[in-house]
Every structure is written in C-alpha cells, then in structure tokens.
C-alpha cells in the first residue's frame, strides 16, 4: 500500500467518525408564562455540530404550533432579516438578540406585549458535512395581563421601646394562569436596605441574615391572613428597629424542570417607624408614707418607711430592678426576678445601718422599711430604678436575653435621726521628750469630761504625725501612725507598719481613758507635729460596734537640736614588748557624744614609720566577726588576738614580736547604728586613735653576709658557682656558731646585663632547708644548696650569654632568743654584687673549622693530581709512531 492510499483511507475514516454525531438545537423549557410589560428572555444553544465554532441563529414566531406561517424576528448574521412589522422594535432595542457564547444566544424582549404571545422558533443554518439531527426548536410564550396589587397598611409612626410592631401588607392578583405569590418585608436605614422576612411562593419562609436568630427565638412572627393579607409582628422592639419599612409582592411561575421564575414584582413603602426610648418616659419618685416636714425627722428606735413610684409608657413590657440608696450606697435591692438582696456591708458615716426591707405593693410602687433606726441610719435616701427589656433577636442577641434600656434615680429624701452624741475633751502631752536622736519618745493622750457615753461604749484612738519642713517629706502631709478601734484591735498605718510589727513603736491603752504612743529609738524623721483623735464606740441594735463621735487633740511638737555624733578613740599600751619574742598588748577605749546605742567595727593598723605605708593587721565587725588583714603572715595568725574587752573597749595582742614588727600601731574604729532590730547597720561616724610604738633593741648576735664566686668569667655551657657566706658574732647564751639555735633564709637575685635592669629572684632556701626555684626564661638551669649552717651555694648549669649580669644574695637570720626562748627574726642582710661574664671563645670556636678546611683542601688537591696522572697514561698509550723517511729532502718539505 502506497502513501497516497494510506492518506485517503485516514480522511475517509475521519469523515465517517464525524458523521456519527447529530446536531442538537435546544431552547428554554416551556411553556413560558410572562406578564405584559415585563422583560422576556429566551435562550437557544446548539451542540454536536460540525463546521466553524461560531454558529449563527435565526428567530421566527408563529401563532400556531404547526408554524406554517412563521414571521421572521431577528438574525445574528442578517440585519435585514426582521419582518417589516418588527423593524422599529428591533431598531429601538425592544427586541434584540445577544450572543452569550459561540454556540449560545438569547432573544430579549424589553417590554412584552399581548400580541407577542405564540410559538418562538430558534433555527440554525447547517454547517455540517452531513445533515443529521434537528436544526430548530420551538417554545410557547403566554402573555398575561399585570394584575398584581400590593396594598400595605401604614404602621404607627412611633412605638414605645419593648412593645410589639405589626406590619400588615395585602398582596393579590387575578388568577388566570397557574402563577404564585410571595411577600417580603424590608427596612431601610439611610441608603442601605435590609431584608427582614420573605414568605412564598411555595409557602416557605426565608429570613434575612441579621434576623434569622431572632425569628428562630420567636422575636419575629408571620401571621398569614385571608384574601391576600399578611402580617409580620416584631416583638420587643428596640431603638435599632427604627427605619422606613417596605412591603414587596412578587408573582412567580413554575416552569418545566422545576425552576421558579419571577415574572412581576411590586414594592410599596409602608411608612417610617420611630422607637421611643424607655428613658424618655421613665420617671421615678421617692416619698415618705406619712406626711411630714422635709427633712424627715425620726427618733431613735422608730421605723422609717419610704415609697418609690415608677411610671413609664411601656411599663408592662419592662422588667424593673429597684434599689434604695442611702448617701449613695446600696441599702437593699430587688432584682427584676423579684429576689431581694440586702447589702450587709453598707454602713453610714459612723457605723452599720439598721435592718432594712423592700417589698412591691403594686405594679408601680415599691416600699422601703427600716426598723429601729439610729443615728447611723440618717442620710439622703434615693430610689434607683433600672428598666430591662428582653431582646427579641438580631445578630447580637437572642430570645431570653435582657438589656438595660434605662436607669433613673429619684430626688433624694433627707432623713434625720435625733440623738445625743457623746462628748469629751482630748489632751496630748509628752511623757518622754528626746534630747537627741535614738532616745525614746513617749506621748500620752488623755480623755476627760466624758458625757453621754452609752452603756457598753468604748473609746478608740488614732495617732497621726506631720513631718517638719526640711526632713525630706511634704510638710503638709499627715501620715497615720496607727489606731486602736473599739475592740482594741491595732490597725497600723502604711508608713509605720514595719516599725509597729518590729516593736520599736508601740500603741497601748494604759487606762480606759488614757492612750500612749512610744518610740523606743526616735529618729530624725520622727520630729514633727503629733495629734491623737479619740473616737467613742457604741453598740447598735444588731450588737455591732459603731463610731458615735470623734474628737481631736491639739497638735504637740516633738523636736530637738540635731547634733552630729562624735567619736574619740584612745589607745594605750597594756604590755610592753622590750625584747624579741615578747608579747605586745594594746587597748583602745571609745568615748561617744550624741550617738546613743551603737555597734563598733575595729581596724588594727600599723606602719614601719610615720611616712611608711599603712597595713591592716586585723578587723572586727559590729557583729564581732574577726578577720585577718592582707599584711598578716598566715604562719603567725595564732599569735594575733583582737577582742572586745568591754562595752567600749577593745584589746589587741601580738605574741612573739620580731624585729620586723617594730613600728606604730593604732585603732581605726567606726560607729554603726540600727533603726530597728533586723535591719542593716548604718554608718554613724569614724575616728582613729593615737599611735603606740613597738621599739626594742635585741642584745642578740650580729650577722654579716659575703658573696664570692670561683670565677667571674666562664664560657658557654660551663657551670658557675657562687657562695653566700654568713658570719655571726656577739651571740647570746643560747646561740653559738655551730648549734641548732640559728637558721637562715637565703634568696638569690640576678640583674641581667642586657635587656634592662630588672632584678629577678632565681632561687631561695628557707630556714628549714626547703629549696624553691623560680621560673626563668633561659636554657640554663640553677640549683641551690646548703653546705653548712653558714654557707649556701648557687650553681648555674649550662651557662648562656643571657646569664651575664650581677648576682647577689639576701639573707634573713633566725635565732633562739636567750631572754624569751622564742625564735626571733633578725634584720635582713644583703650581700655585695658579683658580676658574672659568659665569654665567647673565638679561637676555640674557629680551631676545628680551620683544621677541617685545611685537611679538606689538601685531600682535594692530592685527589686531583692522581686523577690527572691516571688520565694521561690512559690517553697516550694507543698512539702509532711513524718512522722518519730516509729521503730527508722530502721530509723537510713535508715538514
């Protein structure tokens, strides 16, 4: 099979496959019922067709179903297609065709007329290669007259908040065809309109999004009536329900395929509805049940009766909460459910009020009763009413929820209770007046001329303090110190709470009519004006203590001349250290002024001379904590003692004094105070004592030191030796040149020749023979040894050029004192300096390299001579000798 045959077979197969589909033209399902004067739209589409994607359409119309006499309406491709009777309507746009897609169009009639009723045909010219299927489809259009009537009833222009609003609307039409009705209510606020509820066309109810919950809770009800009357009831209206209400009636038709189509609609404005707030009509009045003068005057023990009258336009729709107030405080409250709540914590100006009751006598009146009134029940009584409305829905709430619509408080009624107040006189005096800081202060508050104090009555007191100017506080501010109530309970003030709890400030009742205030340690901030206020407490009808009267004393000034505290310290020698090894003891006595009770910290300090640096030997804190200073030798701490020997006396003891201990000693003492127990120490003042000198001459041996070296010049890597020799003379009875009563501490020092004049320690030998070497930056090494009692040697192994410099030794003798039997340190001895030179040997350095060079030169020369001779012999041995010719003439010519 050739290529042309294959292509032809493929084309025929495709054409055959394409011919299997059949063209399908469909229109809107009918029959269509429309209302005269309303717009009509009829859709038409084609599918399963061949040819171009975009298809053309033609619309025709006939009065009969057979369609024998069809009238051309409009075409998508021919502008002159329309029948002459329809040309004007097509030109004006009353009849038009709109292409929705390539294969779908829509015939539109802006205002259908009764003569437009009939059968409409949608045809499509053929573009298929094979004619198959249908090319046209009809639909019937029925046009009925517009008989829809919407007649709303005008609602009231204003309704009280909380009442019901009924919206009535009548919707009718003449039933000539199977059509259906629906009614919709909406409210317009400004430019926006919200749909409330729609009923129909199938009898179903659809609510707006914001009204669904309210409808479900019964806040909105639909009441269908007869003869097309429909009523919508909105319960419990609020101010948010205000607006312009509208009623909409719609006529529907149900087409084949289950689709509901709206064929005509009409909207009518019902009217504007305003909601009157409850607060505009709510009124509250408080009055007395018995006619009497204002203010109402009662005697103690009588019953107080007051009435609260409530009025409102929508009172039946309101739930009321009624409360009686006395001087602005709740006395008793009746909730909207009818439950009465008594405010037990409500009290008058001087104590708790009497028992109260509240009852509802009718729908508009509430009665307050207070039995057994006393002076505490006097005041201004007012009735407060809170009106609640049950919310009927909307997006923010639902049925059963309440919101407060209004609150009103009546004009108060003044109630007075005649009574005789207790009377007395209060006087304040100073029992202890401080003359300086930290001294005690005691004030007494006396109550005299007491009259009309009821049986079982008690007295209470309140102390107040006003600081003086310049003490760091506002001079006008009055600070409560504390109070004792009628039961004797202590109520501390905020600023004095810690001092009262700590016991440094006390409030006491020493007698029924006498109160005292005591400061154990008066501070500077306690200076100022003091006042005591005494209150009389009586027992009311409920058995509670109430404040009946209160009187205040005149101000009492507490102040003194503030002087800075002074401190004087005197040091004296208790035990003299006349010889080495003896014990030195010194005492320091403190004298104070304007200080009072205090604690002391002590520093024992010393210096070698009056110009020398100060060293701290020991310290003692105010809490008697002992510490050693940095200048104390740890090995001698057992011989140091610092104690408090008296209230203002301290003793320092130094056992086994040495020559290095000679110098000046004194006490540095600081006085510390505490405001109260448990607080931190506060520094008051500081002073130093006079200086006590330790100066003794020990008749012990005399020492000398000398340094010598075997050689002052060495070569590298050799060992250098230096010997430090000590001598003794004038020994004590216990000290000899060859006894165990003598020991030395020896240290070796080196000053580098190059790289600066810094002196470093190389090694040391203590008096017990222990050797210690210091770190060195050199490849050489050092060692130290004790040869005998008086001789010490320093060895430098593997000397280097960096070891060149000056060397000396320092020795400290220790000997056993003949007078005290204790080891005594003698003065430090420094030897003379020995200079050590590490010399570089030039000949010794060059001798071997020169010998090696000469030997190498001779060897190379001899080797070269022998090699030359051998080469000459080998090259000349193969040369051929030619005998001279006999013909001499020829030889000569050749030559």
Automatic annotation (TrEMBL):
One GO CC term, this protein: membrane
The keyword Repeat appears for this protein: yes
UniProt keyword annotation of Manganese present: no
SUPFAM superfamilies: Immunoglobulin
Coiled coil spans: none
All residue ranges annotated as the Ig-like domain in the record: 22-132, 145-247, 291-385, 701-830
Topology of the protein relative to the lipid bilayer: Single-pass membrane protein
Residue ranges crossing the lipid bilayer per the database entry: 850-876
Cellular location(s): Membrane
InterPro entries: Ig-like_dom, Ig-like_dom_sf, Ig-like_fold, Ig_sub, Ig_V-set, IgSF_V-set/TM_domain
Predominant place of localization: membrane
Pfam families (alphabetical): V-set
Native organism: Zoarces viviparus
Protein name according to UniProt: Ig-like domain-containing protein
UniProt entry keywords in alphabetical sequence: Disulfide bond, Immunoglobulin domain, Membrane, Repeat, Signal, Transmembrane, Transmembrane helix
Gene3D superfamilies attached to this UniProt entry: Immunoglobulins
Span of the signal peptide: 1-22
